[in-house]
Amino acid sequence: MEVIEQVHTIRERVQALRCSGKTIGFVPTMGALHEGHLQLLRASARENDVTVCSIFVNPTQFNNPDDYTLYPRTLTQDTELLQTVGCDILFAPAAAEIYPQQHALLQFSFGPLEAVMEGANRPGHFNGVAIIVSKLFHLVQPHRAYFGQKDLQQVAIVRQLIQGLSFHVQLVCFPTVREEDGLARSSRNTRLSPAQRQAAPSLHKALKMAETQLKHLTVADIKAQVSDLLGQVDGVELEYFEIADPATLQPIADLRDVQEVALCVAAAVGPVRLIDNILVNLNEG
Ligand code: AMP
Predict the structure, then answer these.
(1) Is residue 167 included in any domain, yes or no?
(2) How many A from CA of 87 to the centre of ligand 1?
(3) Range of 247's domain?
């Protein structure tokens, strides 16, 4: 596996690959790789001639400076893992390589999509995501780009970004990989204390409980139940729970005649902010 740190080198390398007719699969990550990332990389390796993974803890998408500083960085271990899943090129630039400019960042606007959930609760987050994804798409020029449902709203933002800027890339989305107790795999999980780690699966439990109530209770009552359930777990502070349209991510007020919903939750578990979601088809089961 080739490791590239410079913008000009990745540009040249990708240009040569494109000229020789190779297809490029791309998995953008912030590193501290786990099975959630690895499934995306394996899929890319299966479906493309060349797989590029980027590892870049993107400063512009963090609205909390501690979260940025404490974000796990495990590049040596990540590099070893990448060799086992068929990754061909690791692009791991320094921040100054990606953000050499001193002037203000571009501003994106995603309308209603960023007015809810992560957009509403993390000001500037999706602007940072849009900037880094745009830069990386320009540099890597992938045919296919792989993202996880774990960050459902991010997938919707990237879809809108691809359409809005006419990126010639196919967006591929894979389901959330979980621990045996239901906790969604996340790089941030390594920051949980043993007690917090025990409390963390309550997010998924709350989503599954909400799922069972969709046909019986109103949205307000389901929200109250989720709030009660998580309120009883020590160290867990609910930030939001939403029942949303899976495509637009807009809140659903009335569950009658609804086919499919996204149940989305964000909570602080001790000092670590975690998110999770499940998609539920109300016509099944
Ligand atoms: P991150 O490194 O957290 O920015 O994630 C990089 C990519 O991996 C994003 O598209 C995430 O949605 C995806 N991802 C992270 N965790 C998981 C997971 N548990 N299951 C599926 N995809 C994930």
Answers:
(1) yes
(2) 16
(3) 187-278
- Residue 285: pLDDT band (50, 70, 90) is low
Residues 191, 126 share a domain: no
Distance CA 262, CA 175 (A): 13
In total, how many domains does the chain have? Answer: 2
Q: Answer whether residue 165 is part of any domain.
A: yes
Answer whether residue 285 is part of any domain: no
Residue 270, ligand 1, Cβ within 6 A: no
Return the CATH number at 137.
3.40.50.620
Could you tell me the two tokens for 124?
């500037």
Residue 60: name the closest of 133, 131, 157, 151 by CA: 131
Q: Which residues have a catalytic role annotated?
A: 37
Ligand 1, atom nearest to 154 Cα: 12
Single pTM value for the model: 0.97
At residue 173, does pLDDT exceed 80?
Answer: yes
Q: How far is the CA of 195 from the centre of ligand 1 (A)?
A: 24
- Enumerate helices (H) and strands (E) in the chain, giving the number of each: 11, 9
Nearest CA to ligand 1 atom 6: 29
**How many angstroms separate the CA atoms of 145 and 151, rounded?**
14
Among protein residues, the one with the nearest Cα to ligand 1's atom 17 is 36
Judge if the beta carbon of residue 61 lies within 6 A of ligand 1.
no
